[in-house]
Write the structure tokens for this entry.
Amino acid sequence: MRGRLTLFLAGDSDGAIALARQHADIDVICVDLRLPDGDGIAFIDALRALSVTTPVLVLSAESAPEQIERALAGGAIGYIS
């Protein structure tokens, strides 16, 4: 355990991608399925296209099984509704 917690917040996908690229030591990225500028699954796809390998956890009010399956199939390591 590192003994330190650092939290980064972004207002949109572009800002989150920039943070992920600047801070390669981020332990996990949390994302909603509904973003102000797009879709959480598209965000995960964009991260992977840029070779960002940080694990992504989806936090969403959506609880439909097809949404959960879509997120996991899209590369999320987990889903919390």
About this structure: DSSP finds three helices and five strands in the chain. The beta strands are 29-31, 34-35, 38-39, 56-59, 78-80. The chain has a mean pLDDT of 91.
